[in-house]
Amino acid sequence: MVGRSGLCLLAVIWMTPSLFGQAADRPGVSPTAAADVLSRAPRSDVPESRVVASPVLPPEKLSPRFPIGPPGEFGFPQFERAAGMIFSGTVMRIARRPANLGQAVETVAITFHVENAIRGVTPGQELTISQWVGLWTSGQRYRVGERVLLFLYPNSKLGLTSCVGGPLGRFDEDAAGRVWLTAQHLGAFRRDPVLGGKSRVRTSDFALAVRRAGEEE
Fold this sequence. Notes:
Blueprint: H1 2-24, H2 31-39, H3 59-62, H4 76-81, E1 85-97, E2 107-119, E3 126-132, H5 133-137, E4 147-152, E5 170-173, E6 178-180, H6 183-188, E7 200-202, H7 203-215
Antiparallel strand pairs: 1-2, 1-4, 2-3, 4-5, 5-6, 6-7
């Protein structure tokens, strides 16, 4: 009886690491595994590369900010003035850049072909911006071939930028040259005389709204 019990105990000990290994491979079981999945999130357009842990940086190191409150507490003029670059264009290339001696944090480089230049860029320009990889993994992503109209902050001290107000600074544009406004845009810009109440506008009308906002104090 003792010998048989000993054999059973050895079998359990031998099987346990295998069982634990299978459980660790299941989503949601291991926090370490979940963190690794998140760190590798941008897969569709960004080539795979060695994941380098990026430090958590203060906002002023990433890009300038301005306070965003509930709809109605700010207007399109304040939003417009926070932008260093405003344009519409097509996403051409996306590349992941690991942190190294010349770059303090891991970034994603997005290259656009500028089609409609409103501020800080020129028509026909191939513009490459650098975005902190943490923003990409949190959902601020792009796809090659998509058309967007962007309000981008001036480059930070690290040469990084992002959309003004997060999702508020990004608009989808269709092949007909119309800018689409989400429900969040409609709520934020409902008082604007050009954009207010419209779910889509021509890019030329959108540029007019930007110019008018720049004239307001």
